[in-house]
Amino acid sequence: xxxxxxxxxxxxxxxxxxxxxxxxxxxxxxxxxxxxxxxxxxxxxxxxxxxxxxxxxxxxxxxxxxxxxxxxxxxxxxxxxxxxxxxxxxxxxxxxxxxxxxxxxxxxxxxxxxxxxxxxxxx
Length: 123
Fold this sequence. Notes:
It holds the Pfam family HTH_20. It contains five helices and four strands. It has helices at 13-21, 23-31, 38-45, 49-61, 108-122, and strands spanning 65-72, 76-83, 87-93, 96-102. A hairpin with a 2-residue loop joins strand 3 and strand 4 (96-102).
C-alpha cells in the first residue's frame, strides 16, 4: 500500500493515476473545457451515457472536474461538468509518489456559485 495522502487536501495519488490511465476519462477531460452535460460528453466522446456517468464519478473523485447545477423550468435540475485542472505534477520522493493538481484561477462569481452548489447538495 502506498503512502497516505497529504493532509493539505491533495487528492489521493492512486485515484488521480487511475483516472488518467483510463482512455474514456482522458477523453472526457479533453472535451470538458467548458461545462457540458453527461449527454453532451457522451456525444462528444462517443461513449455510452451510462459509461460517461461511471467515468465522471472517477474523475470527480480525483477532483479533476467541477460540477455545475442549474435548474431548468421544464427539465428540473441539470448538472454540467467542466475540467478543473490546468496541469498535474507527479513527484517521486523518498516517501512515495505525490501528485499536485494545478487549478485554474476562479473569479469571485465562480467561488460564490461553488458555495451555492455545495449548499444545494446539502439540502
